[in-house]
Amino acid sequence: MTKTRLLIVAHSGYMGGAETVLAHAINNVLSDSSRYETDVYYPLGTGSLFRTALRSETVRRCCALPYRNIASGSLKTLIVLLYSLPTILWLIAVCLFRKTDRIYVNSAVNFPGAWVAYITGKRCLWHIHEQPNAHTDYLPRWMISTYRKLFTASNITPVFVTERCRRLWSQKLACDFPVYRIAYPPLKELPLTVSKKTGTALTIGYLGALIPGKNVAALVRSYARLHTSHPQDPPYLLICGSGPCLHELQDLARTLHVETFTEFRAFQNDVSGFFADIDMLVQPSLNESWGLTVLEAMSQRKAVITTTETGLHEILTGEECLFFDPSDEDELYKCLEALQEEGLRNRLSSNGYDKVRLLNLNHQFELTIKDIL
After folding, report:
1. Domain 4-183 is in which class?
2. Exposed, middle or buried, 203 (CB in 10 Å: 0-12/13-18/19+)?
3. CA 308, 368, 146 angle in degrees (round to 5)?
4. Each residue of 325-371: pLDDT tens digit?
5. pTM of the predicted model, to two decimals?
6. Nearest alpha carbon to residue 119 among 105, 135, 108
7. Sheet harboring 61-65: ordered strands across?
8. In a 10 Å sphere around its CB, with 0-12 CB exposed, 13-18 middle and 19+ buried, how is residue 131 labelled?
9. Rounded CA gap, 174 and 163, in Å?
10. Dihedral of CA 124/125/129/134: which sign?
11. Does domain 203-358 have CATH number 3.40.50.2000?
């Protein structure tokens, strides 16, 4: 059997949602070494958690290269393109010399990977995790026409995580996509954890990257209000993740006098301990195209509060979780207050658990990836 030569271009070395999905694809869909010969590249200086999440037998090569993702600012994007140009040229040469058959590009902001696919004409799966909205813009205006060419290129198949994501990109680029696919991301299959908590105080949890767009500062401020309103039995806040906002969030907790009730943990691939220690999960993002952490929490029978700016509206309702406007901290505080009531927590956690069990996300995702690659 002739092997399919794959070139996979990740957009980060951190283990965020997009890389979690990519790691699942590599480890579970593209793992047959008799069928695929896979080279994986990720940006230099962005961590190595993604690399360690890959099973060594599934890839021929995995290494970091000097390139970066584009940003909404024109100057920053120009600097990124100049910095990434040598790597783009090198990857083009690799594709041609190695006679690469397929390219898998992860993330809408991963312009270097998409441009390599466009220039070489290789068949490409471009996995679009991000979605533009009123809070988040990923492109400078002068890049829109270029992105329109990439999204409509005959050799590139954009794979959107939700129909909402596709619609928002279509509006942003002012065009329809002749070929595209929708693939809800797979869910990490976690064993049901047993709570390790002691005492009656509730623990509110956040799991994810500590970056501005995740809006974790709003959670800390809303939690501080909740802490003040429950002086006799104050809840705890557990923030698990890494990123550039860590020290800023720690300073904020001290400023609001909740540092002794707030724990910061570094992200780990095994999140069972995190879920065993919380009663509810909050995802306060300004823009969340999907929400793997929400579904993982539901699979662990945890009540969830999540942003309205999410693609999960396509599969979830207010019967399984509480939605709130991420720009309205009063609304977040009210949701936190509401979930202090045990009956509501139990109802949401039960409904969410039942919904996740009914979904067959992993099978459909894997079929889509195999069909394209």
Report:
1. alpha beta
2. middle
3. 70
4. 999 999 999 999 999 999 999 999 999 999 998 988 898 999 999 99
5. 0.86
6. 105
7. 61-65, 36-43, 4-9, 102-106, 123-128, 156-160, 181-182
8. buried
9. 16
10. positive
11. yes
Please, are residues 351 and 319 in contact by the beta-carbon 8 Å criterion? Answer: yes
Q: Do 4-183 and 203-358 show the same overall fold? A: yes
Instruction: Identify the CA nearest to 310 among candidates 137, 130, 70, 181.
Output: 130
Residues 6+ apart with CB under 8 A from 306: 282, 283, 288, 291, 294, 312, 321, 322, 323, 324
User: Which tens digits make up the pLDDT trace of 90-118?
Assistant: 999 999 999 999 999 999 999 999 999 99
Q: How far is CA 115 from CA 101, 118, 147, 253, in A?
A: 16, 5, 10, 42
Domain boundaries, the chain: 4-183, 203-358
The edge-to-edge listing of strands for the beta sheet with 236-240 is 262-265, 236-240, 203-207, 280-283, 303-307, 322-324
